[in-house]
Amino acid sequence: MTNPRLIELEHLNGLKLKSYCTSLKKITKLSSIKELSETVGAKPRLIVGHGSNIFFLSTRKKPLSSIVLLNQLKGIEKINEKREKVCIRCHAGENWNDFVLWTLKKKIGGLENLVLIPGTVGAAPIQNIGAYGVEVGDRIDSVNVWDFKLKKIIKFTVKDCSFEYRSSIFKKQMLQEGWKKTRYLILSVDFLLWPENKTPLIAHYPGIQEELNGDLSPKKIAEAIKKIRTSKLPDSDQLPNIGSFFQNPRIKASLVEKIKKRFPQMPEFEKTYLSSKVSAAWLIDKTNFKGYKIGDAGVYKKHSLILVNHGHATPNDVLKLAQKIQKTIHNKFGIWLIPEPSIISSFEKTASSLMSPRNQIYIPHN
């Protein structure tokens, strides 16, 4: 029996980890989607853009057995423009930051707070990317997808997308049924934006106002956020990373109260009667992980939410580091941090252990 041909995925994940699959197909034309769907059939499949929000767990001995579909659909077009709004369609394979810069060049506002986020346009709604008070779901009119189950193109309205914090119907489907049964291939996204002078500007976050000095416009906000992000985030060419590795957890008010008895300075936000969000970065800082390393995987010294590859990190290095952070924080605070990236693994039990949604039910240890 011959071994399957191995395809390296190092260039398709932001951490630049050596990972492998046995089959990869590029999607470059809408006209080829139906034929591709027939070829793939019911086989396990994984859809990838730039892989900037994916943590691959696979090895030479145990590569991903699914077909990896590389979404490279390109194109940007203005669908319509009225006095107050502009509708732009962007195809899924376009680079997200390039698209944001394109809108600013065309004097269109609404996406300026999301500048410099890595990845593709197609990945943005899956994760419901967000930064500095804006989530992409706030700016989407509809998402056009190929449904592998129905074998046709369908349109999801913004309501259909069920956007939540770092989640959507697309992500939930993958979590519920497993990434090998990914049902939806995002083809394009329709954005509802504004002419530059009509844009509702969001610039109240700390750091942004200081950079702006009262000079407000979409371009100025984008420039301020670029400056802030580049000062905090590592150069991905020097220290490969996938941005924030953990989500900010929402925990019960009773747990917040217990923790604040010991740590009254713990920041909380988006507070309700029943729960609050707390800063994952603060939790990691309080457990002294900033700069910590396992193998060549480490916590970035300037931003504790970011795990980086110092050169030759393996998927197992990153896994052990993430697990150690989770267990330490759980032991100290009773909170289980959930990873933000999609975890694509040949080892299913390992992946599910990272995602265990144990928040809000544990009491902090004394």
How much is the radius of gyration in Å?
A: 21 Å
The CATH C-level name of the largest domain is Alpha Beta
- Kindly name the structural category: alpha+beta
Largest sheet: 6 strands, antiparallel
CATH-scheme architecture of the largest domain = 2-Layer Sandwich
The low-confidence runs, each spanning 5 or more residues with pLDDT under 50, are 358-366
Number of helices: 10
- Overall geometry comes to globular
Give the integer mean of the pLDDT values: 91
Distance between the termini: 56 Å
* Overall strand count: 21
Approximate strand percentage: 25-35%
Q: Using the coordinates shown, work out and report the CATH topology of the largest domain.
A: Uridine Diphospho-n-acetylenolpyruvylglucosamine Reductase, domain 3
Helix content: 25-40%
Number of domains: 3
Describe the protein in words.
There is one protein chain. The protein has helices at 33-40, 96-105, 123-127, 169-177, 208-212, 218-232, 253-262, 280-286, 315-333, 348-355, and strands at residues 7-8, 20-27, 45-48, 54-57, 64-71, 76-81, 86-91, 108-109, 130-131, 134-135, 140-147, 152-157, 184-195, 241-244, 250-252, 268-269, 275-278, 293-294, 297-299, 306-309, 342-345. A hairpin with a 2-residue loop joins strand 18 (293-294) and strand 19. It has 10 helices and 21 strands. Mean pLDDT is 91; it is low at 358-366. The chain is of the alpha+beta class and 366 residues long.
